[in-house]
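Example record

The entry below shows one chain as it appears in the dataset: sequence first, then structure tokens.
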Amino acid sequence: MPTARPQKKTAKKKGSHAKAAPVKAAKKTKKKSAVDPTSPQRVETILQRLAEHYPNAVCALHHRNAWELMVATILSAQCTDVRVNIVTPALFKRFPTPQAMAKAPQAEVEEMIRTTGFFRNKAKNIIGAAKMIVAEFGGKIPQTMEELLRIPGVARKTANVVSGSWYKIPLGVVVDTHVMRIAQRLELTKSTTPEKIEQDLMQLIPQSSWIDFSHRVIYFGREICIARKPRCADCFLEDLCNSKDKTWSTH
């Protein structure tokens, strides 16, 4: 009885259709949050929690009138509020009114505010602001955004601080470094400039909350949501936050 010959294995030719197609690696896709970060419900939750934790938050710059608040805010650029509060008592004692500051020698003002940084430009702006306020506004700080922005050294941040903290008029949202950082971390904006971030926040937040929102976020930014190594384990907004630089997470 003939034995069956073993079948020979035939080599597969290069380019043969029998060759298995390479398996492509599955693309990694980012998990999208099921909740719109700018939804009215989420924004309202953020506002409520900020209000619960900082019900009495106010401007940290020491002042007794709108003029002092304006000067202090101009000085706060690239400087801490603590440092500004150290400098301003002597400055306001020496030059208590716009009329007095309008006649101040720039060199003397520079020396008094030197430790706030950029002191030459700040001194020039403060004196220029005083001269305009005396000449065009009768020595009183105006209340409209259009008029405030005409004053030397006053941009939207300063104008919003003065109108909101002194006059209680919500013309806009104060966007300092804390508000800028936290608005981005909480995905309330994708913008990167203070002007655009302010516009985004004004669209999301009710106008009645503009003033308090900024005060509360600034306190929150100093105490918990700090720039480096935020204290996420102690954060009352942690469950709502998906920031890439979180130091601790429950989700």
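Notes for this example: The longest helix spans residues 119-137. The two ends are 73 Å apart (CA to CA).
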